[in-house]
Design a protein that fits this description.
homodimer
Chain lengths: 598, 598
């Protein structure tokens, strides 16, 4: 289907917005009036620019409070409308959006509204323009889609139809099933936006918190199915007002927006995306470090053994259990110290996973052809982390491990069985984008978002995982722009005996994050423990959590550059990530000064 | 009255919070449990630190969902409570806050709640602790203050009283008059917070948007009057949850917080603040510039004449009408180019105005004793701008103008009559603080806050003015931290003929900000103009606005460093600041590239 986006959904000048929409691959745009008014380009120039960029101008929305008003007011409105129809002719836009009136002058009189809309449509038709009438969720008298449609039906003019908007319909809790009663050729336009479920007044919710489909909690796909059953074949157009998007770079935001429409079309059986390939585990994580000694010392203390050396690059493979860490000291070593630069995901079909990622607009990284002629499929995640789709040591498929010359050392039994989860910090502007990426591209299930109090601001965290928990990723975002540069990411290692693992780590020279005694005093007040148990936890800095299913015991290493490790024991089907302990952990890390890059 | 603040209202580690509260001058603190749990200090050490800082520990709040629950659950709660009472003894806190239960287990049974609270109070009394029971606005069964009080009354134990919280009471719309029915000795504690009026669910509103009294829209002073009539003489304690405050520096936030309590006490006839001295005009603005030529050229083109030279410093006085600009090229000239560094306010009592500012914790600047022995009273505004309280050329009072040696040149009639308003950019974290400063310290009236769309994010703006409009200040804040360094401030000059003033400026070599033709096309659709009028506006970049009272016509000069000028014609009692034209102006400034510092 054709895709479109409202210029208000992107940041920058009108030229920047149009360029970003075209580069992402949109077919058309809705031009928001304020963007036109603030542009130094004349309407004809905007029309040419759109044509050059391969964009159609699908909608213009310059009118408010048109209908249901006293006759003298309506006369003024018609005069204004004619003026705007001329602008639209210069702009090359043939559909005008008219939202239901919010004017205090508006009367609760459907017949009057229908009469005036018909008059408006007659005038529009003279200019070759169609009028799409939409119910705003906070319209004064008309605020449901079926009410707007009844008025359109009564007005009965070929140049008058309705515009449906997923936000306005779903935010009101209207049943979208009734959409199917509208003839498809009277649905002149379809605007799509999602939103997180927040209890606040609908105007504020709409103006500040709309997100792209799939990023929120509304059933936009369900609504789209009803619309398609009417026979509607116009564009799917995104109209999203969001305080964060207003500050985000237009280019990545436009890509994110288009991705949301591709996933949405797939959800309703339209479009032709390669099928999702759900990862089955974490093949490896890659740390890039300018200074190999501290990183090697940390891995050694954690029980990792250096089992391989890359045949062509300064990269070592460290292993224990199913956990593998690549330590890269090559030219990619960045100035900002040790970072988690790449993640390998075990995939049943690496090439298929990469094809899907590419179809969903993830930047495909140049295929690394290794010394052993192994091709690796990789894409960039929104935060810049490289994601490799791997088939580790599987017959018939190339394995990334073939690139590594064994050192001869074997990883012994250490009590670490693999990766429990990865905690990745996201750029502030791209938290919602990252969510869509992890669901749509990687096929992970999304869990709820939680707020975590850091001593210097609120952080948000949201987990994504496969149904079996083989891959778990916790995305975090700090309180403001730029914060991602000061907060560390971490790798949680799974163990079935965190006490022993922590003791072994410390005995091997590792430093565990110290946790305040007050925390343990509170644990004692909240739960029962065996004699000596809490003392052991306190000695090792082990934190404790419990949910309806089981328990979670976890502790943290010191931080190296922007990375630290967690030792995590997950028992009896505990489903969380210890989020309720995060404030204590964050405060301890601030206190130790170890979070800062070094 | 004694003042207190909850540690959750400030950012940082517990030590940072306590230090900030003490330095600002608070008498005590409420310790939030999470701050204690995350602190490496033992309760005894926190107690010592508070004592050293001169702070009492007025409240601890470690308990949730205590009352109205099944017997086995209550037994566990009592056990937990005893544990916490021991912590409180170590901490030196004698009052514990118990908020009404939100547990799904809680029963709607006042007798049960009263019985269990009495049991809790009996146990607390053994530890010398008092229990203050508070109705949360979202409590499951108990969510109004009078309901909480009925339960306390029924429980009838000397160690049990109630805690009143302005947010919870006013947010529910409860009538605070009934507070007077509670005996003062049963009001164990008073928590104060304000909030902007937002329609959203009360939990979210409370957790993210509370502000200090006087920064929001609730009648906190009215509530306090009722509380004082009960005979309550405990502390006034601030408990404010706010996403922005969590990121702000603790020191300035604590000062801001205490200032809010000083103004609040004044409002109810408590405390002894010097009386407000409302300014009667703008005496001068001072630009600091590293490069005198472009600034002098801009002032000359605007019609200013250099009328004086400071006797001791490289500062020139430029005048026209009642508008005066000081041009400072001394060592204070900052690296970031031309800035608006100081404002002189005409004051009926400069020394009194400075005394009030000092009593309200504004940093008093070292008194400048000039060559002519003129003492200037000055304080620093929250954004660092220096504010001088002036008595310009008034008999019997020292005048700052005495410092200036006349050049002999006289300012001729130029059509500029004075300053219409000043537009000052505030640091992101201090917008609410700046609001309190302009109301409380300067005695200006606050107008509503408006959102303004900038191409790269939403900006907020709020106007403050004297009743007669002699002093008008528009405070603006950008979409995120750091933004204040990239946005310019401006000085709006008043004229009764903006067209002539703009023409004269341009003829004298000044550059006016160009405004897109689309803007004028839209004006034509919205209003009627005389023939040629709009063409004149477009030629000169004059913007137009109209409110219920009158009209506003205004245009902008190019930007010099971080400062530009506006020419403003305000007719027939127009009350605004042209905010609806701000998006067009901001887009034009981004487009011209002239906003960046040079």
């Amino acid at each position: 289907m054709r895709t479109s986006i409202a210029t208000v959904s992107l940041s920058g000048s009108l030229t920047e917005k149009l360029t970003a929409a075209a580069r992402a691959g949109f077919d058309g745009v809705e031009i928001f009036e304020n963007d036109l008014l603030a542009s130094p380009l004349a309407p004809e120039e905007i029309r040419s620019l759109c044509a050059d960029l391969g964009l159609t101008v699908d909608l213009y929305q310059p009118m408010r409070d048109i209908e249901g008003v006293p006759a003298d007011e309506f006369a003024r409105n018609l005069r204004r409308a004619e003026h705007k129809f001329r602008v639209m002719q210069r702009l090359g836009a043939d559909t005008v959006l008219v939202c239901s009136s919010v004017s205090p002058l508006a009367e609760d009189d459907d017949a009057l509204a229908a009469y005036q809309l018909r008059r408006l449509a007659e005038r529009a038709a003279d200019f070759g323009i169609r009028v799409a009438y939409e119910a705003l969720a906070w319209g004064r008298h008309v605020n449901t889609y079926d009410h707007a449609w009844r008025i359109v039906e009564a007005a009965d003019h070929p140049a008058l139809g309705t515009c449906l908007d997923s936000f306005h319909i779903l935010a009101r809790g209207s049943d979208p099933k009734g959409i199917e009663d509208i003839p498809g050729d009277k649905v002149f336009f379809l605007q799509l936006a999602d939103a997180p479920l927040l209890s606040m007044d609908v105007l504020r919710w709409s103006r500040h918190h709309r997100v792209f489909p799939g990023q929120g909690d509304l059933d936009v796909a369900g609504l789209l199915r009803h619309v398609l059953r009417t026979g509607y074949r116009g564009p799917l157009s995104l109209e999203v007002f969001n305080d964060v998007f207003r500050q985000a770079e237009a280019g990545p935001a436009a890509v994110d927006a288009l991705r949301s429409l591709l996933v949405l079309q797939e959800a309703v059986g339209e479009g032709e995306l390669p099928r999702p390939v759900v990862p089955t585990g974490v093949a490896f994580t890659e740390l890039v470090t300018p200074d190999v000694e501290p990183a090697a010392a940390l891995l050694t203390a954690l029980g990792f053994t250096r089992t391989g050396r890359h045949r062509g690059k300064p990269v070592d493979l460290w292993e224990q259990g199913a956990a593998r860490v690549l330590l890269n000291t090559g030219p990619a070593a960045r100035r900002d110290g040790t970072v988690l630069a790449a993640v390998g995901l075990e995939s049943p079909d690496p090439a298929g996973a990469a094809r899907r990622a590419e179809a969903l607009l993830a930047p495909v990284l140049p295929r690394r052809r290794t010394t052993g002629d192994v091709l690796l499929d990789a894409v960039a995640a929104p935060n810049g982390t490289e994601l490799f789709f791997c088939a580790t040591d599987r017959p018939g498929l190339p394995s990334w491990t073939a690139d590594f010359e064994p050192t001869g050392d074997q990883a012994g039994p250490t009590g670490i069985s693999g990766i429990d989860h990865l905690a990745l910090t996201q750029p502030w502007h791209q938290f919602d984008e990252a969510a869509l990426f992890h669901r749509g591209v990687l096929g992970l299930d999304a869990h709820g978002s939680v707020d975590v109090a850091d001593p210097y601001g609120l952080r948000r965290s949201r987990a994504f995982a496969t149904a079996d928990g083989a891959v778990r990723v916790a995305l975090g975002v700090g309180p403001g722009p730029g914060d991602e540069h000061t907060h560390a990411q971490h790798i949680a290692l799974a163990t079935d005996d965190v006490v022993t693992a922590a003791r072994r780590f410390r005995a091997a020279g590792g430093q565990l994050l110290a946790v305040p005694g007050n925390y343990y005093d509170d644990l004692a007040a909240r739960h029962s423990f065996a004699p000596g148990e809490l003392e052991t936890y306190q000695e090792l800095g082990i934190l404790y959590d419990r949910d309806a299913h089981g328990t979670f015991r976890h502790c943290y290493t010191h931080t190296l550059g922007r990375v630290f490790f967690e030792l995590a024991q997950r028992d009896d089907g505990y489903r969380g990530y210890g989020a309720q302990n995060a404030p204590v952990r964050l405060a301890a890390q601030h206190g130790s000064g170890s979070v800062a890059a070094r």
